[in-house]
Amino acid sequence: MSRIVYVNGEYLPEEEARISVFDRGFLFADGVYEVSSVIAGKLIDNAAHLARLERSLSEIDMAAPASSEEIEKIQHEMMQRNNLDEGLIYLQVTRGAADRDFNYPKDAKPSLVMFTQAKKITQSAVAENGLNVISLPDLRWHRRDIKTVQLLYPSMAKQAAKEQGADDAWLVEDGFVTEGTSNNAWIVLDDGTLVTRELSNDILHGITRKAVMKLAAERQIRIEERPFTLDEAKGAKEAFVTSASAFVMPVVSIDGSSIGDGKPGDLSKRLRTIYLDEAHSF
Ligand code: PDD
């Protein structure tokens, strides 16, 4: 049975779903997106994802295709129609279809597209072994706080990592790590303090980052929000990344140099367990 996708009010088999060649998402990457995870049939942290969607839309003066309540209803309908118990739900809003013109069209209607990806995301072999990452210069634009679909550079970076036998890349700007290609970057100091870059336009304001900060603070784990260099990261006790699809994922090497003993760190593993336990209780 084929997957049912959502396109502007219709639930269709994926082979029948269509978007105009004039859609500005296609022509200008003029669109924003969100990825929420689903565990045991429940959406995780979805209110925060929809609040960030609203913010992304308002930052680029794009009309919302529907209210957050309506969008959540569609997400639930999609989960039901696709029998999604565990995996991801992707949603994308673009400015809609209009003849090609750099200026925003006056009357285009925003499009809303959604699809599900059934995946075992809680039991992960990768989490057992940890990620090997390389570093690359951060060549993205300077509004990384807006979750836009212009993901060519992150794709190039992830591809470069793969070609070098690694799993992902950490992006570096002015000597400091900004974030991973599709996740926020963290290190753990010798005294157990967590360090992750502070919020600004330089990084995406990760929903998982925020959830992990709250869970850590509740357990009296110290957190410093500040930039860190690649050298500090290479010398750290542990490293990990956070995202809606990876949750808390240990990093075991950067540019070939092992972090700690080269195995997923204890605090990284503990935070992953805490996050997943919390997610199961949603
Ligand atoms: N990526 N930083 C970047 C650049 C991201 O693309 C993401 C998420 C994050 C983590 O944010 P969150 O915790 O809200 O997922 C940080 C998603 C998962 C993706 O593009 O598939």
Notes on the protein architecture:
The chain has helices at 24-28, 46-59, 68-81, 125-129, 152-163, 207-218, 230-234, 266-280; strands spanning 4-7, 10-13, 31-39, 42-43, 87-94, 111-118, 131-137, 168-173, 176-180, 184-188, 194-196, 223-225, 238-243, 247-254, 257-258. It has 282 residues and is an alpha+beta fold. The protein folds into 2 domains: 4-118, 2-Layer Sandwich (D-amino Acid Aminotransferase, Chain A, domain 1); 125-280, D-amino Acid Aminotransferase, subunit A, domain 2 (D-amino Acid Aminotransferase, Chain A, domain 2, Alpha-Beta Barrel). The strands form 2 sheets. Strands 7, 8, 9, 10, 11, 12, 13, 14 and 15 form a 9-stranded mixed sheet that branches. The structure holds N-(5'-phosphopyridoxyl)-D-alanine (PDD). N-(5'-phosphopyridoxyl)-D-alanine is lined by residues 35, 179, 182-184, 204, 206-209, 242-245.
Topology, pairings included?
Elements: E1 4-7, E2 10-13, H1 24-28, E3 31-39, E4 42-43, H2 46-59, H3 68-81, E5 87-94, E6 111-118, H4 125-129, E7 131-137, H5 152-163, E8 168-173, E9 176-180, E10 184-188, E11 194-196, H6 207-218, E12 223-225, H7 230-234, E13 238-243, E14 247-254, E15 257-258, H8 266-280
Parallel strand pairs: 7-8, 7-14, 11-12
Antiparallel strand pairs: 1-2, 1-6, 3-4, 3-5, 5-6, 8-9, 10-11, 10-13, 13-14, 14-15
Bound molecules: N-(5'-phosphopyridoxyl)-D-alanine.
N-(5'-phosphopyridoxyl)-D-alanine is lined by residues 35, 179, 182-184, 204, 206-209, 242-245.
